[in-house]
Amino acid sequence: MRKGMKWSDGEPITSEDVRFWWEDFCLGLDSEPWGWGVPWQMRFGGEKRGGRIPDDFTFKFTFAAPFGNFAAHMTRWGQNINGIFPSHFFKKYLPKYTSDQASIDALVAEEGRETWQQCLSVWGNWQTGSWYGPPGIEKYPVYCAWP
User: Where are the domains of the chain?
Assistant: First the structure.
């Protein structure tokens, strides 16, 4: 990754955002009913593999078979993969990072959702499946030119 990249809210984009996408979104929502979770690209070669984060601007994933087009898939929309989520923004919704359940419940209610998982899936749907996004999407940090 290139040092100096920023989310639309000015926060730096780092490999922590990739780790969050993989562990908390893909693996964390893998069994959820709305179909989010581990995209087919991350099962390339027939099995789900993992990744590692050696430093703030490097991430490495391994696959069961050679996948030379992985970098291109990390940058595409409409593929259920983009490999990066604004971890600084979404950690406030996850019980894993916020011990105060009342504050999580208040944030979820403010979003008009029923669960914290739905809050993550709204952003994922915008980034990977919808051009304009749902109402209120402008408050979510993005790394593209059209929030």
Answer: 15-139
